[in-house]
Amino acid sequence: MLNFSTFVQKLKHKLRVARALNELSQRVRQPRAPKPHGLPHPLVVSLTSYSARFPVLELTLKGILHQSVGADKTVLWVSRADYANLPESVLALRNEGLEIAQCEDLKSFKKIIPTLRLYPDSFIVTLDDDVYYRETLLEELISAYDSNSPAIICHRAHEVTVGASGLPRPYAEWKKIRSERRSPLVFPTGVMGVLYPPGVFHEDVCNEDLFQALCPTADDVWLYWMWRLKGNEAKKIGGRTRILEWPSSQSVNLRSPNTQNGGNDACIARLVARYGLPGFAASGPVPSSGQSGS
User: Fold this and answer.
1) Contacts for 34-38 with beta carbons within 8 Å, 24 or more apart?
2) Does 280 fall in a domain?
3) Taking Cα atoms as reference points, which of 72, 51, 187 lies closest to residue 118?
4) Each residue of 14-40: pLDDT tens digit?
5) Which residue, 237, 232, 155, 154, is CA-closest to 200?
């Protein structure tokens, strides 16, 4: 039996979903021509999905395709095994500019690795497949980019906290950042979008052997290490950003094992052993694989 507090929370979520569906429906019925993004290189929106999320994927994609600023490409990556299960409603969105591509099942890394390999000189915005995206989300990310002082731009982030030893403290102790901040210790948590300028990553970023061995379940940790190794910073924009997940979309959720069972901490320990501590404390030279991966 639900207690009163849980009942109220569920009711509020239903109301938020209803408002989001109404707004999205109006956006789709009365589309407006998107503004040019104005970036110095092409803009690619990249995301991935899998069969368990396909029932809500159409809603997410419509929110992405109907933005106030237009991307040059919007690419959905799915594994070859999942491709056959895509609903017709999702396939139909190719008529609205969606590109659907098949790749090896790299789990959450499908969100960005295939796109990085194809479009290394583009700005890439990564998004998730299970949430409502407001019309101005892309515009907000792009507007915060400064070509004179490039940084990774995100809506949601944690602060990496560092212990007296110079090592990052356990992930569970990292603090949510609720106001605008720029720092090497800003750790983008994705979901509501991350903008990666071209050239921000270490050369190992697409090396499948390495990220599968060191960070198989935590693409955000891997990406953080890769841009830190290049001496970059991230900027969290705006204030608190709430996530609205579509109902039933979290029946399978990669975020929980990583945060609740120490998955991120295990990945971080392996990255420290392999690459050292980029900017956390004095560390030795950064090794390179000498290959781009496949």
Assistant:
1) 34/67, 34/68, 34/69, 34/70, 35/68, 35/69, 35/70, 35/139, 36/69, 36/70, 37/69, 37/70, 37/71, 37/72, 37/123, 37/138, 37/142, 38/142
2) no
3) 72
4) 999 999 999 999 999 999 999 999 999
5) 232
- Domain that residue 268 falls in: 17-275
Phi, psi of 62 (to 5 degrees): -65, -40
- Work out how many domains the chain is built from and give that number: 1
R_g over Cα of the chain: 19
Our measurement of the distance from residue 155's CA atom to the centroid of its chain's CA atoms, rounded to an integer in Å, reads 10
Please count the CA atoms within 13 angstroms of the CA of 91 that sit on its side-chain side: 8
Whether 11 maps to a domain, the answer reads: no
45 is written with which tokens? Answer: 């929106």
Which has more confidence, 256 or 167? 167
Query: Does residue 281 lie in a domain region?
Result: no
Residue 287 to residue 61: CA distance in whole angstroms: 39
Query: Pick the residue with more confidence: 96 or 256?
Result: 96
Tokens for 232, please give them: 């970059």
The reply to whether 9 falls in a domain is no
CB 234 within 8 A of CB 159: no
- CA distance linking residue 227 with residue 222, whole number of Å: 9
CATH number of the domain enclosing 67: 3.90.550
| Positive or negative torsion for Cα 39, 206, 108, 47 | positive
For residue 248, count other CB atoms closer than 10 A to its CB.
11
> How many other C-beta atoms lie within 10 A of the C-beta of residue 105?
14
Cα–Cα–Cα angle for 129, 257, 233, rounded to 5 degrees: 65
User: 123-126 and 152-154: which strand pairing?
Assistant: unpaired
How far apart (Å, rounded) are the C-alpha atoms in residues 54 and 83? 10
Distance CA 48, CA 106 (A): 10
